[in-house]
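Email to the structure team, subject: Adenylyl-sulfate kinase model.

Hi all, the expression group asked for a predicted structure before they design truncation constructs. Nothing fancy, just the tokens so they can compare against earlier work. One-line instruction: predict Adenylyl-sulfate kinase, return tokens.
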Amino acid sequence: MIAAGNRPLIYYSTPEFGLGDSTTPKLGFLKLPVSNCSGKRFGLHSDEARSSFSVKAGEGSKVSYVNGKADLVRESYDSINHSDGKSICQMSTIGNSTDIVWHKCSVEKIDRQELLQQKGCVIWVTGLSGSGKSTLACALSRGLHSRGKLTYILDGDNVRHGLNHDLSFKAEDRAENIRRIGEVAKLFADAGVICIASLISPYRKDRDSCRSLLPEGDFIEVFMNVPLQVCEARDPKGLYKLARAGKIKGFTGIDDPYEPPLNSEIVLQQKGSVSASPCEMADTVISYLEEKGYLNA
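Reply from the structure team: attached below.
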């Protein structure tokens, strides 16, 4: 007998499946009360799910069977903990997604990092428009590439060409833009890739939310600390001119705030008219990655 919460899970070891000694079963049934798991989740009809349903799994098998239906529950028996009685079903509700289960794979982040000989992380480059974020991202990607390291750039404008093309520049859409990019960056880092996210990301709380998605140390914030007047003088896309003319509303630095980071890992600051070259700034970031061990598995 196995307990799952306050309800019993009855393990059946039966001769019909070629079992020998019932104390060392290789194949058997688990009978679960429906209140612990939704029968509908496993493709059961209402009459099948009224009271309970059975799960059968073979030793070492990756496939379980629910009421004789194959491939509906995968590795569900791995979720049972005989000592503390956790339920066989580890269902979650995340946002509007209900009854979802995280499927764990035997190839994990550490395996991918060993393959790539580097550690996955997110380098989040933030600053005003015209501060040199995209220029730094490309120089950094090139510098790491020349060292045999795999990177990918998530540029703010580039992502809006596809994944985020449905978002405007209103405050709520900018927050969603950052959230999506943060989640994608997290996936790249989990893949063992050094992900370079380059976007204004004006609001501190949104950047901090992205930081919270990753293990401590794996979110490296790079603040391009360039004065507004310098960025406006550069105006590489002509956006400041349009904003000053009132043709663009809610432009960061003009009529929408930029909240500078308080505790960035790296600050690249322009003092007066003196500015480091893109390669020099990239080398500063690469030195940080080397010091923290991200360029080795």
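The first helix runs from residue 109 to 116. The radius of gyration is 26 Å. Ping us if the truncation boundaries need rechecking.
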